[in-house]
Specification:
Mean pLDDT: 97
Number of strands: 10
Oligomer: single chain
Helix content: 25-40%
Distance between the termini: 21 Å
Largest sheet: 8 strands, mixed
Shape: globular
Low-confidence stretches: none
Radius of gyration: 16 Å
Structural class: alpha/beta
Number of helices: 6
């Protein structure tokens, strides 16, 4: 195994954007590609590491950029402003996700017919929106994502398979919102799964995080179970 990575500047609505692609140079030929969508802080080391983990599992990982080159949050105030600016135009957000997907498909190491997307927190919303728009990506995985639907209609048929990994006590996505998402995906004819973990809040995969006052905390069981589910989902998608 020889995991390599490099930064990639690419275009899209409101661009340019800068992502990081990771692959195993010891493997020859095209392989499945997995987008990695970032938290509200913007693309950073967390997402790059996740992209490298995808490469370790035999895929090409691409840590995308939904904010724009050089736009990253260093504190909650900055992160909130960046996220709200993008969230205000969900059509543009979906366009940015499409641009990232096409960039991933353009790498010579990627089998363009076998792509998926995973996302964390705000990134969970990003990958759900990719599915909502009717993208032909094979599947999406939302880790402790945000569920609010876009203010415009979804595609008549959501063709991507959907896996939602959710903390039952997440203050940003309460049980009623989880049910609303299930109804939304059902109306869109999606093949979906929702795994809800008890005694689990938001950001449960973020090792070292412990801010119960704001409903943010690492939960080791949910972290482990969610990754087990995600890896099985990807293996089934890609055959």
């Amino acid at each position: 195994m020889a995991i390599e990575s490099r930064s990639v500047v690419y275009e899209g609505p409101g661009g340019p954007f800068e992502g990081v692609v990771a692959w195993d140079a010891a493997v020859s030929g095209p392989r499945p590609g997995v987008l990695v969508a970032h938290t509200w802080m913007g693309q950073g080391e967390h997402e790059v590491q996740r992209a490298k983990e995808m490469a370790e599992r035999g895929y090409v990982g691409f840590a995308l950029d939904a904010y724009g080159k050089g736009k990253r949050g260093t504190n909650p105030e900055e992160s909130g402003k960046l996220m709200m600016a993008v969230d205000a135009d969900r059509k543009a957000l979906q366009g940015r996700m499409t641009a990232a997907l096409e960039t991933l498909r353009g790498f010579e190491t990627v089998d363009a017919a076998k792509t998926a997307a995973i996302g964390f927190c705000f990134g969970g919303k990003c990958v759900l929106d990719l599915a909502r728009m009717g993208s032909d990506v094979l599947g999406v995985v939302s880790f402790h994502g945000v569920f609010d639907a876009p203010p415009h209609p979804n595609a008549e048929t959501i063709t991507a398979k959907v896996l939602v990994l959710h903390g039952w006590e997440d203050p940003l996505a309460k049980p009623a919102q989880m049910v609303a998402l299930a109804e939304e995906l059902t109306a869109g004819k999606a093949r979906w799964q929702i795994h809800a973990y008890g005694h689990t809040t938001h950001a449960f995969t973020a090792k070292g995080l412990n801010d119960p006052e704001h409903g943010l905390a690492y939960q080791p069981d949910a972290d482990r179970w969610s990754w087990q589910a995600a890896y099985r989902f990807l293996e089934e998608l890609f055959g």
